[in-house]
Design goal:
Chain lengths: ~625, ~325
Amino acid sequence: MVRHPLSVTPFMVSPNHPESGPAAARAGNPQSLSDVVIRLAGNSQDGIQSIGGFLSRLAGRSDQEVMTYMTIPSTISGGPSIFQVRMGNGDILSAGDRADMLVAFYQHSYDAHVGSLRPGGVLIYDTDHVKPAADDHRFTQVPIPITSATVEAVGGTSKDKGKNMFVLGLLARIFDLDVEKLTALVKERFGGKNEDVVRNAMLAFDSGYAWPQNNLRDLFYRFEAVERTGPAGRPQVTMDGNMALTYGLLAGGVRHGAGYPITPWSSIMEQLRTELPKYGGLFVQCEDEIASISTALGFSYTGHLAVTGSAGPGLSLKMEALSWAVMAEMPLIVVNVQRGGPSTGMPTNVEQSDLMQAIYGSHGDTPRVVLAPKNVEDCFYVALEATRIAREYSTPVLILTDQGLSSRIEAFDEPDLGSLMVEPKPDLSDRGADYQPYPLGRITHHAPPGTRIGSGKYPIVTGLEHDELGHPTGSPKLHQQMTAKRREKIKQLARSLPAPEQTGDSSGEVLLVTWGSNWGPGREALTRIRRAGVRSGHLHLRHLHPLPTGLGEIFSRYHKIVVAELNDEGLYGFGQLAMMLRAALANPNIVSVTKTDGLTFKVSEIVAGVARHIESTALDATLGAAPQSVLSRS
Amino acid sequence: MSSSAPTLAAPAAPAGAPLTKKALTADHPTWCPGCGDFAVLAAFYRVLEKLNYPHEKIVTFAGIGCSSRFPYFVNTHGGHYIHGRALPFAAGISLGSDDLHVFVFGGDGDGFSIGGNHLVHTARKNVNLTYVIMDNSVYGLTKKQTSPTSPIGFKTKTDPTGAFDQPINPMRALLNSGATFVARSHATQVNHMIDMMLRAAKHDGFSVVEILSECVEFYEGAFDAANPRKGGAWKLVDEKKHDGTPEDAARHDPSDELGAMKLALEAWPGSFGVFYENNQRPTKNKLEAGLIARTREKTKGAADLDLLKASFARLR
């Protein structure tokens, strides 16, 4: 089945927009759809995140693709909050530019989010709180007294608690969701609490589900059935990026860690604190960021590869210790969940502005490894790969994830844990008389304390420049040799890296380059750009430092290399990755599409950005007289 | 930077052979002639000889400063870290591998200034390791700036007219932070240092020995007030002997926190000895091990792979 882009497929049939599809589907004869974007807008205490969570997990259990987008206010409790879920049965790559359906709990939800609803979409609003513009005929309006209907259904003193479950029931009816599976999920979720909680939740759910059909304006849909193409025998799992990253670390044999709370990293350390003791390991909450990386390095020194992590400002605090780790060649995993910066910035928004900090943000020449996951599933695999690289090359490895990935819920094929999981133990075997902690010409592999050294000379791990035995040296020659040793092992890693993922035309006018969570929007943007007749490709980088080899050759096959990233164009007009690629490859055709609004890229923003660059060159002719109009139609 | 060549080490002694000073000696110390730290190093060799731990199980670790060069001069597993952060690193060593004997060395700047926060939290968490602070009341490595223990009136390059900020009282700070073993010694009293470090090493928990160690280059005579050979008064803590004699009632019981605080508040140069020892409070090492044991009891000690598979099964 060929899936059409959002903008041309009428998922919803609106009586206000009969041209958007065939006549409105009747009840009992649901309209078929391949995917849908639902935005729930309310306050954070309304539990709309749990509606999103239920829908995501249901989609996962139904072998549907799912992706979510969540904003949480940075205030302590309460405040406007949204959860956007896109579910369907194709490849879901982004959370969707515009919503097909908006559920507005409050007037402020309506005011702030009605603009995100596409014309022809469905607006469900709580008549107890929302008065929509009466003359707005762009949408199918479905007024429902969500609050009073919930109070009536649940009764007692629960007030309007359970509105979320009412809406979940409503959506289950509209989208013909599997109520049995959904009910099972609700019972699992509230099972630990007392029976009243489950009962009230189900009362509200049933009430929403049974909302009179004729009041729903015949909005009934069913997802097209599609054959599963995933690996046989492994079901889908549904989780957010931070959770996937945590499990990737566990699968990679990380049993020790240390951290300090900071949004959006905290949930990783909370999970590790809970999970690690099961595995006989431990996670220490330290007094500050510096102590965290120091304690983690102490663990690594004893032969237990350890993790520490933070978000932007915390990573800055860890930088001196990170330099020590490079100098002492100590393996370590450092997770950085990027958020809007600088300083406290926009702590609950997304940005990719820590790339330069991750790669270069230390004193001295400190080559180290930086990886970035492309989606929630990849958080698992990148964490796993980070553990392998850290051990093999005895180096700190930074994982640059971001706020968008951290809380986004996606469904993906359960990893083949049996074949992936590693459980290395510290190597305390006797070392020979020729043991050296810092041999020139070979990669360092430390002998953890507890190891007997055949020569009787015990090694020192140190931040001073040192000789091969770890003793301090002021020798100019040795400093040069040791600097090269630390550099060459990272270059050796570069040569072993797989070619980056590349889709679309292998040569042409444009190569779109993305990193991190821009992978999905980038892939979708490429589809639109190619449909507009532009020969183009998409290349995604998971390994940011070192870069994989061969990029120069790939880039030479395109007229323009457009790097889309969520950071500022800076003083010289280039985003951080674009700047680095230009420096590394000296290719003047590398240009930037950047933004810093704290939100993930919309597909249309990337397409428009690419169009701007093409328009500005002789390639205009290729696109025809009006390149803008061709591309911006999407 | 040190330019001295590493000394030739003896071949590895067979397992179980007594640990000797010869086997423990590494690089020749880079300290200035006359530095108090030489005596601390000599005393520490004696301590290790007496403890006779398996050689490979000893770790010496340090931050930055003159005294923090210590690990280069002791032939054991060891490390030289960044300024002020040796304690959290050493906590990782201690918690990561519970059968190691971890000794951290540092000065007053490392411990009370840039690393002050870590001292407080390592103390309150009672991580099992021994911390020897060589306090010289001046920044020596950087050539005479005011330190957190410099007395009021001491003239340095950063306080040419005399320091006027209130100095830290190390004993009081350590007691306040909840350290479970707090002792004080003087680099001119070798036997006393050995005794204090031995008791600190044997203490199960965070043990600290502050040693007044003179910097002959930048603060000569700093601790003469407690040096009988320079006319000072060497006053030992009169420790309770539990012998039932009437005079024993007046002696100091190291488990008495209030009594320890009284000692800490004595006028300069004060007393020397074990101010405080608390053997009741469990170490973080034990508490974490308990958490692991209780958790693994719940999961019936399931294999790692089964644990992870179960977690994923819950997310289907």
